Recover the amino acids of this structure.
């Protein structure tokens, strides 16, 4: 992708004051434009699970009707027929899974989304989506295509400095040979769907295409898992031949090995660096340290899984706090100084969390990984993002030469 020096803000539509599209979404686009921002990044748009997680969605293709501003809008039979024809690969599976009215809801979403994306384009704002690598157990995809998944193992992450037991995600694992025999059609269509919805999409857990952590289905923790070889570049090559481009960001966080770096670079995908990860006293040469940022990266102040900048700073251990203070100097507002530090990165795109623009503490955190409940619920109050916030962010954006045209 030919990314220019720019910046953006992450906010899932559920965090809008109404939690829906419509006027609130258009007003947020207006705010982004007035703040000089080029990007609005979101989390996955699929129907969330019972804990509100968009990363364990009932579908890798369908959008959540709960986001609709007008869920009762009339849908003509001709509109349903046209949608079914255009989205033939997945829509009948979803209709069988979700029941009566499922197709009409997707038509409604398609209308509202197209209107939002077109409006954002007129304001110079592009949309970034999110593609979780795995599907949810029992999801429409899992139920409709059992031949694409292995039995006896589930997905997870190995033990590391943050968890002695690793992470037991429980998602079904792909049968990559079966996908290869089908010429990666499922992945091509998934990429196509996201390219319909977004200008760019982040591929979550990109390293899983090189090697993934497979855990026995009956295991109590992820400690018993093993690394298994992934498909490498093959799904991307198949998609590139058919779709012509790959407007994706590689979420290359976690245990990253040279083969992961080589795959990302061979595909020409920008990777991620996270400012909050760059103050590890045990990793002085890490890629997340601001002095080690590369131009072909997306620099995030934090992610939806990390604390807000203010919450992180206020709870940082003394050695970490010392490194932060050395980087930002004496300041009355450390979280804003960290925003300015993120913007100073050589990375072409800098991305902030909305909570950090507002200077909110840990109470506004979106997600705590490993905690089953109490996540994904943060919402803006009406009018909470003001003209003053936009003016301040625009000034910082201009100072860092990231201003939107």
């Amino acid at each position: 992708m030919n990314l220019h020096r720019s910046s953006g803000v992450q906010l899932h539509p559920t965090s809008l004051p109404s939690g829906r599209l419509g006027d609130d979404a258009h007003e947020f686009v207006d705010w982004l434009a007035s703040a000089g921002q080029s990007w609005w990044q979101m989390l996955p748009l699929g129907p969330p699970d019972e804990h509100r997680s968009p990363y364990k969605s009932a579908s890798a293709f369908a959008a959540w009707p709960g986001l609709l501003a007008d869920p009762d809008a009339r849908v003509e039979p001709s509109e349903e027929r046209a949608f079914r024809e255009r989205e033939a690969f997945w829509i009948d599976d979803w209709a069988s899974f979700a029941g009566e009215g499922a197709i009409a809801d997707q038509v409604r979403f398609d209308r509202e989304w197209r209107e939002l994306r077109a409006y954002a384009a007129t304001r110079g704002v592009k949309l970034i989506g999110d593609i979780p690598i795995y599907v949810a157990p029992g999801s429409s995809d899992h139920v409709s295509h059992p031949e694409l998944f292995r039995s006896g193992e589930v997905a997870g992450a190995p033990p590391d400095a943050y968890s002695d037991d690793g992470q037991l995600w429980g998602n079904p694992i792909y049968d990559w040979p079966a996908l290869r025999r089908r010429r990666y059609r499922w992945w091509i269509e998934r990429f196509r769907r996201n390219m319909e919805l977004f200008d760019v999409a982040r591929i979550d857990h990109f390293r899983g295409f090189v090697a993934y952590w497979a855990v026995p289905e009956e295991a109590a923790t992820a400690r018993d898992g093993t690394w298994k070889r992934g498909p490498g570049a093959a799904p991307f090559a198949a998609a590139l031949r058919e779709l012509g481009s790959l407007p994706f960001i590689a979420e290359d966080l976690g245990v990253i090995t040279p083969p992961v770096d080589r795959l990302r670079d061979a595909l020409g995908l920008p990777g991620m660096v996270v400012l909050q990860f760059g103050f590890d006293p045990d990793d002085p040469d890490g890629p997340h340290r601001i002095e080690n940022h590369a131009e072909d990266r997306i620099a995030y102040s934090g992610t939806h899984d990390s604390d807000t900048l203010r919450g992180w700073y206020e709870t940082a251990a003394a050695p970490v706090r010392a490194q932060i203070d050395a980087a930002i100097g004496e300041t009355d507002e450390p979280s804003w100084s960290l925003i300015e530090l993120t913007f100073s990165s050589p990375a072409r795109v800098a991305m902030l969390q909305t909570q950090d623009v507002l200077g909110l503490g840990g109470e506004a955190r979106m997600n705590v990984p490993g905690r089953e409940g109490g996540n994904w619920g943060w919402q803006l109050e009406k009018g909470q993002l003001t003209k003053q916030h936009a003016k301040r962010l625009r000034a910082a954006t201009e100072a860092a030469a990231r201003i939107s045209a």
